[in-house]
Amino acid sequence: MMNVQVQKAVVFIEEAILQKKLDVSSPMGIISAALGIVQNIGAMTLEEQKQITLKAIERIAAGADGISGTDDDLIPVAVVQKISALLNADVVGSILDFIGNLPVPKEIAVGCAPCLSMFRSKVVPKTEPAPQSTPL
Prior knowledge:
Oligomer: single chain
Number of helices: 6
């Protein structure tokens, strides 16, 4: 089943790259867009989403010849290495958990980072003002 999800992700992410809707020089931009695409493929855990995202990005990055580091690569090798490091070190998950646990209205959180809509978050009702933060 995961292989089918990876193939679907490859198609949609590759289309976004080819249509210049995705900046291939930005690891965080790619992760954000790819996680959003993977989330729309079907219900799965965050860990499965990250695995599918990484596999899809690695396949796309290799280009038509299937070999990374050649002229036909859609995503530079250095960017793929950064993406892999970010996802494997769970930096992205930690950031998303931190942001997801902030008591802010959902509309603001999703507006600031659209990929957050897929993650659990504690939101305050729209009628309550968000608590004011105190300077450190």
